[in-house]
């Protein structure tokens, strides 16, 4: 996996965690759900790149 993509996926997961935690702290369930979604999306993208990289070897 390229370093740029890895950083982008990690940043997306981190941004999702911040949103999730902020939503939880403020009681904003919508923001919390968006954060959980972004965290999952970043994780799936990262996992997909890892699988793709494993087949290239």
Structural commentary:
This protein has about 55 residues and is mainly α. It is about 90% helix and about 0% strand. It has helices at about 5-25, 30-55. α1 runs antiparallel to α2. The protein is elongated, with a radius of gyration of 13 Å. The termini are close together.
Tell the overall outline.
elongated
Largest sheet: none
Helical content band? over 70%
Rg on CA atoms, Å? 13 Å
Q: End-to-end span in angstroms? A: 11 Å
Along the chain, the helix and strand elements come as HH
Oligomer: single chain
Total count of strands: 0
Provide the fold topology.
Layout (H helix, E strand, L loop, with lengths): L2 H24 L2 H28 L1
Task: Based on the model shown, name its key terms.
57 residues, mainly alpha, 91% helix
Q: What's the short version?
A:
The chain is mainly alpha-helical and 57 residues long. The protein contains two helices and no strands. Helix content is 91%, strand content 0%.
């Amino acid at each position: 996996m390229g370093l740029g993509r890895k950083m982008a996926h990690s940043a997306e997961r981190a941004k999702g965690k911040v949103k999730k935690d902020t939503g939880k702290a403020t009681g904003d369930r919508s923001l919390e759900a968006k954060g959980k979604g972004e965290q999952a999306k970043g994780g799936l993208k990262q996992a997909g790149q890892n699988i793709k990289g494993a087949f290239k070897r």
